[in-house]
Design a protein that fits this description.
By secondary structure, this protein is an alpha/beta fold. It is built from twelve helices and ten strands. An eight-stranded parallel β-barrel has the order 1-2-3-6-7-8-9-10, surrounded by six helices. A two-stranded antiparallel ribbon has the order 4-5. The protein is globular, with a radius of gyration of 17 Å. The chain binds ribulose-5-phosphate.
Length: 260
């Protein structure tokens, strides 16, 4: 593994832990609630995120080039919620990722779905290309509607992604999550999933980290919160400061302006 690739992973995984902010949802679901105006949503959150996961379109239009934040560039897509989601291609080249000064590229794999093989080939191709330039690949274990989000399935998907050379794997929290992490030889981060009450989102982050996750790559539970800045700060408390969900929730509640 080249020094450059290791250095880019380290920039994202601050001391082995990370709070990544996922704002790439529009690449298949259009103007997602909370992300209708990406610049407006992102600007106040950037100081509290360890990296941003987004597409090149949102990077170019909505993040100023003077921002000192690692970019995890979403480079798979080509589908929408109106069609078969697993039918993805690589949309953005490694050379473009280098030009955009990305710290990593992100690609979804759909293990068990109709286009499993093509999405795993996308991952393998990006790892091969990434090795040439020292760009790590984050694999997202996307879960088809027909799949169970359990440790057996997620463990299978995460391990395959790591075997194909992903440097970081993003997956979902599930019962017996430790088994997923133990079977995956690279760092695992969790997606937040659908918006939850803030206390529950903090518990999710806490439980994932307690069971071996390196952190979160969270989107909707941050930008769809009534108070995105306070919730991302609270998530940082869990991931970076070892706070319990209760402690982090107290900090979240305490930092919110009183209701009018
Ligand atoms: C979709 C993604 C999204 O970035 C991710 O799942 C979003 O995070 P969240 O679930 O926390 O909104 O990778 O494939």
């Amino acid at each position: 593994m080249s020094w450059g690739l290791k250095n880019r992973v380290e920039r994202i995984m601050k001391g082995g832990r990370t709070v990544m902010l996922a704002v790439d949802h529009g690449y298949f679901q259009g103007p997602t609630t909370g992300l209708e105006n990406p610049r407006k949503t992102l600007t106040p959150l950037i100081p509290y995120a360890d990296s941003l996961m987004l597409t090149r379109g949102v990077l170019r239009t909505s993040v100023d080039a003077n921002q000192d934040i690692p970019i995890v560039l979403r480079v798979s897509g080509g589908t929408s919620i109106l069609k078969e989601l697993s039918d993805e291609v690589v949309t953005t080249s490694i050379e473009e990722a280098v030009r955009l000064n990305a710290s990593a590229v992100a690609v979804s794999v759909f293990v068990g779905s109709e286009h499993e093989k093509e999405t795993l080939a996308n991952l393998a191709e990006l790892v091969n290309e990434g090795e040439r330039y020292g760009i790590p690949v984050l694999a997202v274990t996307a879960v088809g509607r027909e799949m169970a989000r359990d440790a057996r399935y997620l463990g299978l998907a995460c391990r395959i992604a790591a075997e194909l050379g992903a440097s970081i794997v993003k997956t979902y929290y599930c019962a017996d999550f430790r088994r997923v992490v133990d079977g995956c030889p690279v760092p695992v981060v969790i997606a937040g999933g659908k918006k939850l009450p803030e206390r529950d989102a903090l518990q999710l982050a806490h439980d994932a980290v307690a069971e071996g996750a390196s952190g979160v790559d969270m989107g909707r539970n941050i930008f769809q919160s009534a108070d995105p800045v306070s919730i991302i700060k609270a998530v940082r408390g869990v991931v970076h400061e070892g706070k319990s969900a209760d402690e982090a929730y107290a900090a979240f509640s305490g930092s919110r302006p009183p209701a009018q």
